Amino acid sequence: LYPLLLGKCGRGVVFGTQVALRHPHKIEIDDNVIIDDYCLLDAKGRTNRGIRIGADAFIGRNTILSCKNGDIMLGARVNIGFNAEIFSGSCVTLGDDTLVAAYCYFIGGDHASDDVQTAVGEQGARSQGIEVGDKAWFGAGVLVLDGVRIGGHCIVGAGAVVTHDLP
């Protein structure tokens, strides 16, 4: 059934139990990808392309890939641990062979908060996106904030909060 729903579904794709797909026509999955139990892939948006997952990738249990009119691009052999979240208000890209440990969050967007007299929820949103090069490694519990560029081969230690670019 999945190949009929998705924008693309490669060969050898494995879906765990209770995987939720929202806007599946905007989700493209390459060959030999594993989407573990209880994951959510939400490609919502009016003008976005959605979610692209490269070949031989692994998406760990309870992980959320959430677009809010943004795109999520995961390269080949990306491995995302359990209970992680990738949110995109514009574009979040993880390069080939990137490793993401459990409980990591890539927050590719933020609320506007320029007017202190107006509630944050009423001020709209902004997003610069996140870009990660090939072969990066993120330890458990890393938070990557909007607007950050992380170069290839970077190692980000467990519990780090990344607020600035890393070469």
Structure explained in plain terms:
This protein has 167 residues and is mostly beta strands. Helix content is 2%, strand content 37%. It has one helix and 23 strands. It has one helix spanning 2-5; strands at residues 8-9, 14-15, 20-22, 27-29, 34-35, 40-42, 51-53, 58-59, 64-67, 71-74, 79-80, 85-88, 91-94, 99-100, 105-108, 110-111, 125-126, 130-132, 137-138, 143-144, 149-150, 155-156, 161-162. The strands form four sheets. The chain has a seven-stranded parallel sheet. Strands 2-5-8-11-14-19-22 form a seven-stranded parallel sheet, with no helix packed on it. A seven-stranded parallel sheet has the order 3-6-9-12-15-20-23, with no helix packed on it. The longest helix is centred in the N-terminal third of the chain and has 4 residues, at 2-5. The termini are far apart.
Radius of gyration: 16 Å
- Uncertain segments: none
Gross morphology: globular
How many helices does DSSP assign?
A: 1
Instruction: Report the portion of residues in β strands.
Output: 35-45%
Total E-strand runs:
23
Question: What kind of sheet is the major sheet?
Answer: 7 strands, parallel
Mean pLDDT: 96
Keywords for this entry:
167 residues; mainly beta; seven-stranded parallel beta sheet; globular
